[in-house]
Amino acid sequence: xxxTPIRPALPIPFLSYRVRADxxxxxxxxxxxxxHGAAWCAGLAGANLGLHLAARRRPGSWLAERTTGGAFEAPxxxxxxxxxxxxxxxxxxWTLSWVLREPSEPWxxxxxxxxxxxxxxxxxxxxxxxxxxxxxxxxxxxVALHHLGAILASVAASLTSGWLxxxxxxxxxxxxxxxxxxxxxxxxxxxxxxxxxxxxxTLVPMAWMVAALCASPPPACGVLRASGDAEESLRRRPIPxxxxxxxxxxx
Length: 251
Hints:
Elements: E1 2-4, E2 18-20, H1 23-57, H2 77-99, H3 115-134, H4 141-158, H5 164-185, H6 191-215, H7 219-236
Antiparallel strand pairs: 1-2
Keywords: Membrane, Transmembrane, Transmembrane helix
Protein name: TLC domain-containing protein
Transmembrane segments: 29-51, 148-173, 193-213
């Protein structure tokens, strides 16, 4: 990364220097996601294990108490790291990813590999991995499957050549919907409101995806279309006269 003194995208004094991601970071983004994801996984797992030990030492404490009538019905200790990440870690990373973007290049449907983007993907992959392991006994098979899909999606997003800003934003909105549901379980948000927020945070990103499909198909579709066009052009290419053989020659 190289600090280059250019005009910031927003008129914020402390952003007089923008940290711009060069082409090398784009190629190293998957490695950053894997290595930093492992670090996040270890740190978050340690925090969750500490909460687990604290709850075991004090069975009657707030941490050991299970939520009832909510979406997950798990010990309250399971919510601490989750809520902290969704409320404190991910929103600033998404904001920095947008603020530190290169305005002259596409961000929503592009693939600007700035360091906050890598940390966002690294955090999500590391979080879901440690949560699947540490809270294995409390997670349902469906939740475990969701965690596996989220890990694979985070790594796949680091390999994309487009839609990175859109995928990052969709993930952020999904996490905010989950945050509302968890706050409802903890009694910090009306559960009816939490359910409506979850529904809205699901439908709105879906609408964004449909609009993006119409405006600019994802890179994978472009690759498939290009390969299909290449195959069709090869079929239609005339055979050179030197390669032609008389019809009466035995095959």
